[in-house]
């Protein structure tokens, strides 16, 4: 009995309480070797060992997502529940399904002028993270079209999301003159794998369902103006009745 209590203390101190409770419930004693191994396993192995219940019990962000460095997918369902699957590849915080389909709490819609745009599929909390992810590509191998959405991670390397439809940031519209960007870039460095990488963006305010997930094309409105001028396009407000955009406090009221 004393030995069992000692192992329990070891398990709890190493963050393995859920594992220990599950093991003792079935009266299968854990060993120090098991506990030590648990602290080193991958997210995939941890999920298989702990089960879905324990995976859901992992600490989440205030926005209800798994932490970026947890090894688990940060996608969430329309009900706001965190995905229980492990991240599929190093450098991207999404599981295989969410890499392919994108985060279920977001959706891509058609805009009458801007083409594909990203909108909230449910009410999203402030602090919700949406990473730009894509293939790690050398600058010399980037196409001019890819460069419009590529993210420079220094050292001659770029994140190219254009061949990854589940990388939703590439569909973010630029806010117009009377609108604001609801996404902000984080100071966190890019996460790199062998083939893929990511850079997290975060919602700087709550966003209602069907509102557009807007991102400034440049550091400020002036740089956004330059972006469109260089392409011979006039920068316009992009909010629509179906998919509004958050407006500036000093913007004139819509009729």
Strands, helices and their partners?
Blueprint: H1 2-13, H2 17-25, H3 32-38, H4 43-56, H5 96-101, E1 106-111, E2 115-120, E3 129-138, H6 144-147, E4 151-152, E5 157-160, E6 183-185, E7 191-192, E8 196-203, H7 221-229
Antiparallel strand pairs: 1-2, 3-5, 3-8, 4-5, 6-8, 7-8
- Shape label: globular
Number of E-type strands: 8
Q: Encode the helix/strand succession as letters.
A: HHHHHEEEHEEEEEH
The Cα radius of gyration reads 22 Å
Number of helices: 7
Quaternary structure state of the chains depicted: single chain
Spans with pLDDT under 50 lasting ≥5 residues? 1-41
In which range does the helix fraction lie? 10-25%
Q: What is the beta-strand fraction?
A: 15-25%
| End-to-end CA span | 75 Å
- SSE-based structural type: alpha+beta
Q: Overall pLDDT, averaged?
A: 82
Largest beta-sheet details: 6 strands, antiparallel
Features:
two-stranded antiparallel ribbon, six-stranded antiparallel sheet, alpha+beta, 255 residues, 8 strands
Written overview of the protein:
The protein is α+β, with helices and mostly antiparallel strands. The protein contains 7 helices and 8 strands, in the order H-H-H-H-H-E-E-E-H-E-E-E-E-E-H. Strands 3, 4, 5, 6, 7 and 8 form a 6-stranded antiparallel beta sheet that branches. It has a two-stranded antiparallel sheet with strand order 1-2. Helix 1 packs antiparallel against helix 2. The longest helix has 14 residues. It is globular and about 45 Å long. The N terminus is likely disordered.
């Amino acid at each position: 009995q004393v030995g069992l209590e000692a192992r329990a203390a070891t398990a709890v101190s190493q963050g393995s309480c859920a594992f220990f409770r599950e093991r003792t419930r079935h009266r299968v004693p854990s060993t120090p070797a098991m506990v030590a191994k648990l602290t080193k396993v991958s997210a995939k192995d941890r999920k298989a060992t702990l089960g879905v219940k324990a995976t859901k019990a992992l600490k989440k962000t205030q926005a209800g997502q798994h932490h970026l460095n947890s090894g688990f997918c940060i996608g969430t369902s329309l009900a706001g529940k965190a995905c229980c699957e492990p991240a599929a590849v190093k450098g991207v915080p999404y599981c295989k399904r969410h890499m392919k389909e994108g985060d279920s709490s977001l959706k891509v819609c058609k805009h009458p002028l801007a083409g594909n745009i990203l909108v909230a599929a449910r009410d999203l909390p402030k602090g919700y993270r949406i990473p730009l992810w894509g293939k790690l590509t050398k600058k010399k191998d980037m196409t001019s079209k890819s460069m419009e959405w590529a993210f420079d991670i220094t050292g001659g390397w770029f994140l190219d999301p254009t061949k990854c439809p589940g990388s939703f940031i590439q569909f973010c519209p630029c806010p117009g003159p009377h609108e604001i960007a609801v996404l902000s870039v984080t100071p966190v460095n890019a996460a790199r794998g062998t083939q893929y990488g990511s850079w997290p963006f975060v919602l700087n305010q709550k966003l209602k369902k069907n509102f557009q997930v807007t991102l400034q094309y440049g550091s400020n409105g002036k740089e956004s103006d330059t972006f469109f001028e260089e392409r011979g396009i006039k920068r316009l407000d992009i909010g629509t009745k179906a998919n509004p955009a958050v407006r500036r406090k000093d913007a004139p009221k819509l009729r």
